[in-house]
Every structure is written in C-alpha cells, then in structure tokens.
C-alpha cells in the first residue's frame, strides 16, 4: 500500500470527526477498497470505533440484497423485515463505523436507486454511525449529507509510489528502463501496476513487454475477478447504467488520442456523436475518462489499450 498517505490522512481525519460520511470514488482498479481497509485499521479509527464493519456489496444487486448483507455482517437473524431491525440495532448500539464496498452494484440500476439511497439515508440518520462507501465513478449517491470537504476521486499513483509498488512485488533486480516502460503502460493504475509486477516475477520485464505488444491488457487479465484481471475490471465500468452509446463512441475516439481532446476541440468538432457533451459527462461520471490539469479530456493508458481492442473507432 504505497502512495496514498494524503488520501488516507483525509479519510482518517474525517472519521475522527462526528457523524462522518465519506465517499471514496474513482476508476476501477484505483485502489479504493485498499484505501478503505487502511482507514478501517488505522489506530486512531480503531480507538474511536470498537465496532467496525466492512460490507462487500459487489453481489448485492438489489436493495433487499444490500440490507440482507448488512444484517448478516451485524450478526442479526436474517428473517422478516430486516431494515427496521438493522436501524434499531445500530441506533441502540455504541459508535460504529460501516464501510460499504463496491456500492455501485446496488446503486447503479435506476429502477432501484431511490430505494437504495433511502437505505443510506436511514443509516446516516444515526448520529453515532460513521459511513464510508467505495464506488466506481465520480458521482456521490443522493439523500446523504456527505462530509465536506469532499474527498476528491482517487487518481493514479505518483511515479515514485508506482515504482515502490512494483518493487515490493517484483523486487528491485530489474533494468530500470524496462521497469519505467512497463509502468508507463500501466498508467500508474494501482491494479495494473500490481498485475504487471506479478507477471514480471515469473516472466521478467523483457518478456512481459514483448507479450504486451501482441496481447495488450490480456497479459494481466488471466484472473477470474476484477481484482485479478484488468480487462474484467475495466469491463465492469462499461456495464454501468450511466454509460451511453454516444459515450462509448467518444471513448473509442479517446483510445487513439493519448493527449485527449480539449474542450474547444469537442465544441467545434464535426464528430458523428449526438450530444457530445452528454457523452463527455457520462465518461467522467463513470471515471472512464477525466479532465486533467490541462483541461483536456483523456483516458488512462490501460483503458485506451482495452477499448482499442474491443471498440476500435469507426471511420
């Protein structure tokens, strides 16, 4: 766990305040779960909250699934109308920290979003409950008064932290120029750095680079879930209800533009993309693209590589 000292400090400081409500946002593979777990085990946080619960939500497709999962982690009998039981149990208990990981799964479907947000609202009505959610994208759920200042969406690692992460997994006995080239391909996305380093352990830097030239992100996509496969992690973001056909077309274009597009280029473009600004908004909301310090819309290297392979831009 390297390069997240600032973000961890912000989360911990917020959790030490009263009635903290924190949303950890960012692209898939950015390390949101790792950050939340680091905060969960921080000594100051542990001192304040004897009762701390980490609730994975990636399998919770509905409001009922979400409530059932929370009740199970609280050790409640999972029968009958569970939500009042959950709220009563938490209301009558001591200070508690609850982390809802991968909250985008129950929140994404528009058909159930209001009901899922109602669960959050009821949880955050409990003054001695601190709530942290992790979510793909850059959009916070409604019906919650999130603690200000907001934690900004998590960004790629700084170069030094990416190198530390690589060395921690693959060791330091590698030619520096090859390591730098591999890290450039990773876009400093923590998941990509982790997976590339694990491939290097067995195949070395040169072989890994050679494979990337022909296999692209498939080199680090042999795993069976989003934490062990870069392609699966990126594909999950494509399944977001916030994605549109126009957003997909714009992302396809960005896949061949390392420097992205400026706002002026978007405004004056003759691209056959209806409502290009809505497409831009959809990509930002799902964190598949971002507007950087130079005010250009762009996508990270691993995302560009993946998209170019499955959704190449049309003529």
UniProtKB/TrEMBL annotation:
<dbReference type="Pfam" id="PF20703">
    <property type="entry name" value="nSTAND1"/>
</dbReference>
<dbReference type="InterPro" id="IPR049052">
    <property type="entry name" value="nSTAND1"/>
</dbReference>
<dbReference type="InterPro" id="IPR027417">
    <property type="entry name" value="P-loop_NTPase"/>
</dbReference>
<keyword id="KW-0378">Hydrolase</keyword>
<feature type="domain" description="Novel STAND NTPase 1">
    <location>
        <begin position="1"/>
        <end position="136"/>
    </location>
</feature>
<protein>
    <submittedName>
        <fullName>P-loop containing nucleoside triphosphate hydrolase protein</fullName>
    </submittedName>
</protein>
<dbReference type="GO" id="GO:0016787">
    <property type="term" value="F:hydrolase activity"/>
</dbReference>
């Amino acid at each position: 766990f390297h390069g997240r000292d600032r973000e961890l400090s912000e989360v911990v400081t917020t959790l030490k305040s009263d009635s903290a409500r924190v949303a950890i946002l960012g692209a898939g593979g950015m390390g949101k779960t790792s950050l939340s777990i680091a905060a969960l085990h921080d000594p100051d946080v542990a001192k304040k909250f004897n009762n701390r619960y980490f609730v994975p939500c990636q399998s919770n497709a509905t409001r009922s699934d979400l409530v059932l999962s929370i009740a199970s982690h609280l050790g409640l009998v999972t029968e009958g109308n569970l939500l009042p039981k959950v709220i009563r149990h938490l209301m009558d208990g001591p200070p508690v920290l609850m982390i809802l990981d991968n909250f985008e799964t129950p929140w994404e479907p528009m058909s159930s979003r209001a009901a899922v947000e109602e669960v959050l609202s009821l949880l955050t009505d409990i003054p001695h409950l601190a709530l942290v959610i992790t979510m793909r994208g850059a959009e916070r759920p409604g019906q919650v008064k999130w603690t200000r200042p907001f934690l900004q969406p998590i960004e790629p690692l700084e170069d030094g932290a990416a190198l530390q992460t690589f060395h921690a997994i693959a060791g330091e006995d590698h030619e520096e120029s090859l390591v730098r080239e591999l890290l450039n391909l990773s876009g400093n996305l923590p998941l990509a750095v982790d997976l590339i380093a694990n491939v290097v352990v067995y195949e070395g830097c040169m072989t890994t680079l050679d494979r990337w030239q022909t296999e692209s992100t498939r080199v680090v996509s042999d795993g069976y879930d989003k934490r062990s496969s870069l392609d699966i992690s990126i594909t999950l973001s494509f399944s977001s209800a916030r994605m549109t056909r126009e957003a997909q077309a714009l992302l396809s274009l960005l896949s061949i533009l390392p420097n992205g597009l400026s706002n002026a280029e978007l405004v004056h473009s003759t691209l056959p993309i209806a409502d290009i600004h809505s497409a831009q908004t959809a990509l930002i909301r799902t964190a598949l693209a971002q507007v950087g310090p130079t005010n250009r819309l762009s996508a990270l290297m691993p995302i560009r590589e993946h998209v170019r392979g499955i959704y190449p831009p049309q003529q």
